[in-house]
Amino acid sequence: MIETPSIKIANPDDEKVLAITEELSENLYLRFGSDGKNSFQDWQNDNSKFVFVIAEIENEIVGCGAIRPIDQNTGEVKRMYSKYPGKKIGQTILTFLEDKAITLDYTDLVLETRVKNGNAIEFYQKQGYKVIPNYGKYTDLPEAICLGKSLNQNS
What we know:
This protein is of the alpha+beta class. It is built from three helices and seven strands. The protein has a single domain (6-150), classed as 3-Layer(aba) Sandwich (Aminopeptidase). Helices cover 27% and strands 30% of the residues. The mean pLDDT is 86.
């Protein structure tokens, strides 16, 4: 029986949480030559529109994810990670983040991943994300692909 992960809002600097974010960074570095940490520094400004979550199964932290503000209406999905593929961990995290984004008055979510990361692109597209023009610091990076999703309940 596959247990559904529980999602909890957490502090990414919490000692118990650091292991999963470090695992994510190592995974990214081995696969793409960059750990992604540089694009996750500004969360500490105590912005109430920032959310970091962990996923737990039987008291083991098995995943994480975050949203942060890009502007008043747009949030960016960051640091998505699932320790065990095929257990709906990523989907559960993303659904939680999307629901939380709506309560924070975001109308859209965007994200960036690597063009090489076919599994991530496929995952996000299955969740309703569509390829959008690269934004922000990703604008002129050919190795980056950006995706977005409207959170408008009526669309």
